[in-house]
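Listing 4. Sequential folding, example run.
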Amino acid sequence: MFDLTDVGYVKRITVGSDDPNNLRSEEEVQKALDLLNTCLSSTPKGTILGIEKNFNVLNVGEHQVVLQCMVYHVGFPRKPYWLED
């Protein structure tokens, strides 16, 4: 059973491009996914507290481009020693 009072540290992980002026490469997106998987499977095991779903519609010339990102809020009882800020 998970209780929010047990959360002592929250890590915010952005997967995707959240800034149209600074697009993330596939490598950066994959690193974010790997970090998310590590947070959910390593000790101490994190729990997803919330998810933000964001998108931007941009007009580039005659084309419309959609940028999407998801921001995961992962809670831990304490800050993991392997997690860097």
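-- end of first protein; second protein begins --
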Amino acid sequence: MYRGRFAPSPTGPLHSGSLVAAVASFLDARANGGDWWLRIDDIDPPRHDLNSFISIPECLLIHGLHWDNDILLQSKRHEVYEAYLDRLKGEGLLFTCVCTRLTLGKLGQCETDCASRTHSEGSLRFTVPSDAPKSLDDLVLGQQTASQLPNNFVVKRKDGAIAYQLATAVDDLDEGYTHIIRGADLLESSFRQKAIQQVLKRPSPQYGHVPVVTDSEGYKLSKQNGARGIDVHRPAQNLRDTLSFLRQPAPPEAIQHVADVLEFAQEHWDTSALPAVSCNFLTR
């Protein structure tokens, strides 16, 4: 059975770019008769905005995006992540790295002899196997190739925090997602996560990457660069703007209620119409 998800980080209120990812993943799940789950990716406490643990679910509900599970928190999974790290270490795929940003390669990989040494402190890095997946058939972008997959990448930071790539790779397996619809800025991450999933000998979900919303200067909207939170007092219009961005059929003007807008959008959901580009600009 189809199972999708939306997995925001609790670093502030949802903005229009977040809503695009949420709506796209929700509609794809519903149009395929599947479940849609909500997970809060809270593995980086210094960046958390405590209000967003409440505001994010509330914003989704205001826009009619109802999830089918109890909200999942990555912060509850630390022991599971450590178990996976032990497994990867036992297979000789992890090493401790003491490099700084100044000494890393252009793809962020360790290029010194850390892998051949025994360091007591540092970040844990995953060695990408030579047979790691270098291509994927993206549900939106079509066939994609990883032309610059690094030789290694961080799975546990020096400060002890579990890295996004490891947590997301194993959570997406353990939680049983069949389809991951998310922003195109995470396309490169999909290859890293597929590499981990292949080593664990479990099939990866199918991936689809929708355009990233940018500002008028071409920069991706994000909480870090001050993107404004969604105006929750106009949910139906927010949904219309989002559907327009995704090049989906416009609901008739007579449709005013959020639930009706989503019902129309679900019935007319067309993945072939989604823009096959890495980013775009939401004009409204």
